[in-house]
Amino acid sequence: MNSPTNSLSNSQPTTSKVTVSMVAMPLLKQTGKVFIGPSARNEANSIGLGLSTLNKQQRKDLERATNYALGQSIRHRMLNRQITHQHHTQRISMYTHALSLMSKVYVGNVSFETRELNLREAFGVFGPIKHIHLSYDDVTGQHRGFAFVEYEFAEAAKLSTESMNGVFMTGRNLKVTPMCTEPSFSNPTDASFSYAIGNYDHSQSLWERSRLQAQPVIELIKQESKKYHRIYLAPIHPDLTEDDLKSIFKEFGEIVKCHFPKQPNGSGGHRGFGYIEFTTQNAVEEALKLNKLDLSGQTLYIGTCITPPGAYKFITAPIASNISTATPLSAGAMIDRIKEEALAEWKVRTVNSYD
């Protein structure tokens, strides 16, 4: 007779571990046609099932279509590059023209005894002069009583206008006017001014159109310059250094930068003018009170800046050449690069169209 203990142990179920093995399904090749049912037709077409094989002519047509699309993509990219270059060149041209007008002054009521050398000596103290145009009469050989002075920098033109207008020179009071301002042709303050504009730019309409085109850019340049608290100083004695000027003007406020452009000949000397940037506009106003300061035996003229820092570096920066002006080698390299970009984009679009 079995004991209760034995009968209880016999009634408990026995457990065992079952091992399950995963077998990879073999890769089978299709041996017959694929038949697509009505409900699966859309899904099958999206992955290319059920389509007939292209014949030779269809493959040629597909290749021609692909090459045409690729060619269109290349032409589109080249056109975009040229348009971008043209827009950039146009902006540079407008900016350069605006700065050129800002750097010119008209000098009227000039005595007939005054020569170009006299004007260069009188106006050269405010900054480097690019050109002086003193118009002469072909018959008499005398100049017509007016001149145009073009500086390298707009600040020099502004400072000369503020300092030389009304100055008595060889028996006459000069009339100095900035070229970037609007002249009154109907009632000019100087009779020679209207004539001068017509003679210098061939017609008043050309001058007015030129000024009107540049005026929005001039205003943008002036507005940009107001973000910086800078003054322009000239002439600066050759023996004075940036530290010398800092020691004088630091009393008006914190100085961000003091810069004297150097001589291009590599001598290390400065060009006789400079810029000082402060942290506040109040410092600028205080510094302007030192205008016409006698410093190292010569008069130091001080004026506000009307261009932002680096304005002239912008117009002298090299412009990337487009395909029409590039050398054959660079043009070919550029075309190859555009083709590679277009081909890569075309491949991406082709792959994405089947995703």
UniProtKB/TrEMBL annotation:
<dbReference type="InterPro" id="IPR000504">
    <property type="entry name" value="RRM_dom"/>
</dbReference>
<dbReference type="Pfam" id="PF00076">
    <property type="entry name" value="RRM_1"/>
</dbReference>
<dbReference type="GO" id="GO:0000381">
    <property type="term" value="P:regulation of alternative mRNA splicing, via spliceosome"/>
</dbReference>
<dbReference type="InterPro" id="IPR051974">
    <property type="entry name" value="PUF60_regulator"/>
</dbReference>
<dbReference type="InterPro" id="IPR035979">
    <property type="entry name" value="RBD_domain_sf"/>
</dbReference>
<dbReference type="GO" id="GO:0006376">
    <property type="term" value="P:mRNA splice site recognition"/>
</dbReference>
<dbReference type="GO" id="GO:0003723">
    <property type="term" value="F:RNA binding"/>
</dbReference>
<dbReference type="GO" id="GO:0071013">
    <property type="term" value="C:catalytic step 2 spliceosome"/>
</dbReference>
<dbReference type="GO" id="GO:0000380">
    <property type="term" value="P:alternative mRNA splicing, via spliceosome"/>
</dbReference>
<keyword id="KW-0694">RNA-binding</keyword>
<dbReference type="InterPro" id="IPR012677">
    <property type="entry name" value="Nucleotide-bd_a/b_plait_sf"/>
</dbReference>
<feature type="domain" description="RRM">
    <location>
        <begin position="229"/>
        <end position="307"/>
    </location>
</feature>
<protein>
    <submittedName>
        <fullName>RRM domain-containing protein</fullName>
    </submittedName>
</protein>
<feature type="domain" description="RRM">
    <location>
        <begin position="103"/>
        <end position="176"/>
    </location>
</feature>
<dbReference type="GO" id="GO:0071011">
    <property type="term" value="C:precatalytic spliceosome"/>
</dbReference>
